[in-house]
Amino acid sequence: MNPDSARVRARDRHVHAIRSDTDLVSAVVRTASPDAPIPACPGWDVRRLVTHLGAVHRWATSALVHGRPPDSDAAAGPPADDELAVWIVDGAAALIDAVQAADPEADTWHPFPLEQRAWVWGRRQAIETAVHRWDAQHAVGDPSPIDAQLAGEGIHEYVEMGLPRVLQREQVGAPSTSLHVHCTDVDGEWLLWGDGGDYRMLPIHDKGDAALRGPAADLLLVLMGRLDRSVLDIVGDPAAAAAWLDLPGW
Description:
Blueprint: H1 3-31, H2 46-66, H3 84-101, H4 119-140, H5 148-170, E1 178-183, E2 189-195, E3 198-202, E4 210-214, H6 216-223, E5 233-236, H7 238-245
Parallel strand pairs: 1-4
Antiparallel strand pairs: 1-2, 2-3, 4-5
Helix pairs in contact: 1-3, 1-4, 2-3, 2-4, 4-5, 5-6
Protein backbone atom coordinates (compact mmCIF):
# COMPACT_ATOMS: atom_id res chain seq x y z
CA MET A 1 0.00 0.00 0.00
CA ASN A 2 1.27 3.44 -0.90
CA PRO A 3 1.79 5.21 2.44
CA ASP A 4 0.81 8.54 0.91
CA SER A 5 -2.55 7.18 -0.25
CA ALA A 6 -3.07 5.64 3.21
CA ARG A 7 -2.51 9.07 4.76
CA VAL A 8 -5.00 10.63 2.33
CA ARG A 9 -7.63 8.02 3.17
CA ALA A 10 -7.02 8.59 6.87
CA ARG A 11 -7.36 12.34 6.33
CA ASP A 12 -10.71 11.82 4.60
CA ARG A 13 -11.93 9.67 7.50
CA HIS A 14 -10.84 12.29 9.99
CA VAL A 15 -12.58 15.07 8.07
CA HIS A 16 -15.79 13.04 7.99
CA ALA A 17 -15.54 12.40 11.73
CA ILE A 18 -14.91 16.06 12.57
CA ARG A 19 -17.89 17.15 10.48
CA SER A 20 -20.36 14.55 11.74
CA ASP A 21 -19.37 14.78 15.40
CA THR A 22 -19.45 18.59 15.36
CA ASP A 23 -22.94 18.48 13.86
CA LEU A 24 -23.99 16.23 16.75
CA VAL A 25 -22.50 18.64 19.29
CA SER A 26 -24.41 21.46 17.62
CA ALA A 27 -27.61 19.41 17.89
CA VAL A 28 -27.07 19.08 21.65
CA VAL A 29 -26.55 22.83 21.94
CA ARG A 30 -29.83 23.49 20.14
CA THR A 31 -31.84 21.41 22.61
CA ALA A 32 -29.97 21.55 25.94
CA SER A 33 -29.55 24.40 28.37
CA PRO A 34 -26.10 26.03 28.16
CA ASP A 35 -25.94 25.53 31.92
CA ALA A 36 -26.52 21.76 31.72
CA PRO A 37 -23.64 20.01 33.51
CA ILE A 38 -21.23 17.69 31.70
CA PRO A 39 -20.80 14.69 34.03
CA ALA A 40 -17.74 13.43 32.13
CA CYS A 41 -15.97 16.78 32.72
CA PRO A 42 -16.64 17.78 36.34
CA GLY A 43 -17.20 21.50 36.70
CA TRP A 44 -18.05 21.98 33.03
CA ASP A 45 -21.40 22.80 31.49
CA VAL A 46 -22.54 22.67 27.86
CA ARG A 47 -21.44 26.26 27.32
CA ARG A 48 -17.91 25.59 28.53
CA LEU A 49 -17.55 22.36 26.56
CA VAL A 50 -18.65 24.01 23.32
CA THR A 51 -16.48 27.06 23.98
CA HIS A 52 -13.49 24.79 24.59
CA LEU A 53 -14.05 22.66 21.49
CA GLY A 54 -14.71 25.63 19.23
CA ALA A 55 -11.60 27.40 20.50
CA VAL A 56 -9.49 24.27 19.97
CA HIS A 57 -10.77 23.97 16.39
CA ARG A 58 -9.88 27.59 15.65
CA TRP A 59 -6.47 27.31 17.33
CA ALA A 60 -5.63 24.16 15.37
CA THR A 61 -6.76 25.78 12.12
CA SER A 62 -4.43 28.72 12.67
CA ALA A 63 -1.50 26.43 13.50
CA LEU A 64 -2.08 24.30 10.41
CA VAL A 65 -2.60 27.20 8.00
CA HIS A 66 0.33 29.31 9.22
CA GLY A 67 2.71 26.56 10.35
CA ARG A 68 3.57 28.25 13.64
CA PRO A 69 2.15 28.72 17.13
CA PRO A 70 -1.11 30.67 16.84
CA ASP A 71 -1.46 34.26 17.97
CA SER A 72 -3.35 34.90 21.19
CA ASP A 73 -6.49 35.95 19.29
CA ALA A 74 -6.61 32.88 17.02
CA ALA A 75 -9.40 31.32 19.09
CA ALA A 76 -11.57 34.41 19.51
CA GLY A 77 -14.91 33.81 21.19
CA PRO A 78 -17.16 32.64 22.61
CA PRO A 79 -20.31 34.27 21.24
CA ALA A 80 -23.65 34.71 22.96
CA ASP A 81 -25.43 31.53 24.02
CA ASP A 82 -27.93 31.70 21.16
CA GLU A 83 -25.05 31.71 18.65
CA LEU A 84 -23.11 28.74 20.03
CA ALA A 85 -24.75 26.11 17.80
CA VAL A 86 -23.72 27.95 14.63
CA TRP A 87 -20.34 29.09 16.02
CA ILE A 88 -19.19 25.53 16.73
CA VAL A 89 -20.10 24.40 13.18
CA ASP A 90 -18.41 27.42 11.58
CA GLY A 91 -15.16 26.73 13.41
CA ALA A 92 -15.20 23.08 12.38
CA ALA A 93 -15.87 24.05 8.76
CA ALA A 94 -12.74 26.23 8.69
CA LEU A 95 -10.73 23.42 10.29
CA ILE A 96 -12.01 20.92 7.73
CA ASP A 97 -11.05 23.26 4.88
CA ALA A 98 -7.53 23.56 6.30
CA VAL A 99 -7.12 19.81 6.82
CA GLN A 100 -8.40 19.03 3.31
CA ALA A 101 -6.16 21.66 1.71
CA ALA A 102 -2.98 20.35 3.33
CA ASP A 103 -0.91 17.48 2.01
CA PRO A 104 -0.90 15.07 4.99
CA GLU A 105 2.91 14.88 4.75
CA ALA A 106 3.39 18.65 4.51
CA ASP A 107 5.52 20.37 7.13
CA THR A 108 3.60 22.22 9.80
CA TRP A 109 3.80 23.13 13.47
CA HIS A 110 2.10 21.43 16.42
CA PRO A 111 2.97 21.10 20.13
CA PHE A 112 3.00 17.30 20.24
CA PRO A 113 6.01 14.94 20.46
CA LEU A 114 5.43 13.61 16.94
CA GLU A 115 6.78 14.45 13.50
CA GLN A 116 5.81 17.96 12.42
CA ARG A 117 3.43 16.86 9.66
CA ALA A 118 -0.04 18.05 8.75
CA TRP A 119 -1.63 14.60 9.22
CA VAL A 120 -1.19 14.94 12.98
CA TRP A 121 -3.72 17.78 13.13
CA GLY A 122 -6.44 15.84 11.33
CA ARG A 123 -6.14 12.84 13.63
CA ARG A 124 -5.81 14.91 16.80
CA GLN A 125 -8.88 17.02 16.04
CA ALA A 126 -10.99 14.04 14.98
CA ILE A 127 -10.27 12.32 18.30
CA GLU A 128 -10.76 15.52 20.31
CA THR A 129 -14.11 16.15 18.64
CA ALA A 130 -15.31 12.55 19.01
CA VAL A 131 -14.59 12.42 22.74
CA HIS A 132 -16.23 15.78 23.43
CA ARG A 133 -19.20 14.84 21.25
CA TRP A 134 -19.59 11.78 23.49
CA ASP A 135 -19.34 14.07 26.54
CA ALA A 136 -22.08 16.35 25.21
CA GLN A 137 -24.46 13.55 24.27
CA HIS A 138 -23.81 11.73 27.53
CA ALA A 139 -24.93 14.85 29.38
CA VAL A 140 -28.41 14.70 27.83
CA GLY A 141 -29.00 11.01 27.10
CA ASP A 142 -27.41 7.94 25.55
CA PRO A 143 -24.35 8.87 23.48
CA SER A 144 -23.65 7.31 20.10
CA PRO A 145 -20.58 5.06 20.16
CA ILE A 146 -17.26 6.39 18.93
CA ASP A 147 -16.21 4.81 15.64
CA ALA A 148 -14.05 1.78 16.44
CA GLN A 149 -11.25 2.62 14.00
CA LEU A 150 -11.03 6.19 15.26
CA ALA A 151 -11.13 4.95 18.86
CA GLY A 152 -8.21 2.65 18.10
CA GLU A 153 -6.28 5.64 16.80
CA GLY A 154 -7.26 7.48 19.96
CA ILE A 155 -5.84 4.72 22.15
CA HIS A 156 -2.59 4.78 20.20
CA GLU A 157 -2.40 8.56 20.53
CA TYR A 158 -3.07 8.33 24.25
CA VAL A 159 -0.42 5.71 25.01
CA GLU A 160 2.07 7.31 22.62
CA MET A 161 1.86 10.92 23.77
CA GLY A 162 -0.95 11.34 26.29
CA LEU A 163 0.45 9.17 29.07
CA PRO A 164 3.98 10.61 28.83
CA ARG A 165 2.50 14.11 29.20
CA VAL A 166 0.45 13.01 32.22
CA LEU A 167 3.52 11.54 33.92
CA GLN A 168 5.55 14.66 33.18
CA ARG A 169 2.78 16.99 34.37
CA GLU A 170 2.25 15.08 37.59
CA GLN A 171 6.01 14.59 38.08
CA VAL A 172 5.59 10.88 38.77
CA GLY A 173 7.31 7.84 37.35
CA ALA A 174 5.64 5.16 35.29
CA PRO A 175 4.23 2.22 37.28
CA SER A 176 6.67 -0.63 37.76
CA THR A 177 4.10 -3.10 36.41
CA SER A 178 3.34 -3.89 32.77
CA LEU A 179 -0.04 -3.57 31.08
CA HIS A 180 -1.28 -5.12 27.85
CA VAL A 181 -4.10 -3.19 26.13
CA HIS A 182 -6.02 -5.21 23.53
CA CYS A 183 -8.89 -4.11 21.27
CA THR A 184 -11.36 -6.90 20.60
CA ASP A 185 -13.17 -5.35 17.61
CA VAL A 186 -10.37 -3.74 15.55
CA ASP A 187 -6.64 -4.28 15.22
CA GLY A 188 -4.81 -2.68 18.10
CA GLU A 189 -2.55 -3.96 20.88
CA TRP A 190 -0.06 -2.18 23.08
CA LEU A 191 2.30 -3.12 25.89
CA LEU A 192 3.03 -0.45 28.50
CA TRP A 193 5.65 -0.77 31.22
CA GLY A 194 7.88 1.19 33.53
CA ASP A 195 11.65 0.96 33.34
CA GLY A 196 13.11 2.44 36.50
CA GLY A 197 10.32 5.02 36.46
CA ASP A 198 10.71 5.77 32.74
CA TYR A 199 7.69 5.10 30.56
CA ARG A 200 7.96 2.55 27.77
CA MET A 201 5.41 1.51 25.15
CA LEU A 202 5.37 -0.76 22.11
CA PRO A 203 2.38 -1.46 19.82
CA ILE A 204 2.79 -5.23 20.08
CA HIS A 205 1.09 -8.37 21.36
CA ASP A 206 2.92 -9.46 24.50
CA LYS A 207 1.99 -10.67 27.94
CA GLY A 208 1.84 -8.09 30.72
CA ASP A 209 1.26 -8.31 34.44
CA ALA A 210 -2.32 -7.38 33.59
CA ALA A 211 -4.37 -6.93 30.44
CA LEU A 212 -7.29 -4.72 29.47
CA ARG A 213 -9.54 -6.20 26.80
CA GLY A 214 -12.61 -4.69 25.21
CA PRO A 215 -14.05 -2.80 22.24
CA ALA A 216 -11.84 0.08 21.16
CA ALA A 217 -14.41 2.75 22.06
CA ASP A 218 -14.81 1.39 25.59
CA LEU A 219 -11.05 1.11 26.06
CA LEU A 220 -10.55 4.70 24.92
CA LEU A 221 -13.29 6.05 27.16
CA VAL A 222 -11.95 4.17 30.19
CA LEU A 223 -8.42 5.42 29.54
CA MET A 224 -9.78 8.95 29.13
CA GLY A 225 -11.69 8.71 32.40
CA ARG A 226 -15.17 8.66 30.84
CA LEU A 227 -16.30 5.10 31.61
CA ASP A 228 -15.85 2.88 34.63
CA ARG A 229 -13.21 0.20 34.19
CA SER A 230 -15.82 -2.46 34.98
CA VAL A 231 -16.96 -2.34 31.32
CA LEU A 232 -13.64 -3.99 30.35
CA ASP A 233 -12.32 -7.50 30.77
CA ILE A 234 -9.36 -7.13 33.15
CA VAL A 235 -7.08 -10.17 33.14
CA GLY A 236 -4.15 -10.89 35.43
CA ASP A 237 -3.10 -8.88 38.47
CA PRO A 238 -5.84 -6.35 39.35
CA ALA A 239 -3.36 -4.22 41.28
CA ALA A 240 -1.10 -4.00 38.22
CA ALA A 241 -4.01 -2.79 36.10
CA ALA A 242 -5.08 -0.31 38.78
CA ALA A 243 -1.60 1.20 38.93
CA TRP A 244 -2.10 2.39 35.35
CA LEU A 245 -5.82 3.13 35.45
CA ASP A 246 -5.48 5.22 38.61
CA LEU A 247 -3.14 7.70 36.91
CA PRO A 248 -4.69 11.19 36.52
CA GLY A 249 -6.47 11.96 33.28
CA TRP A 250 -4.89 13.59 30.27
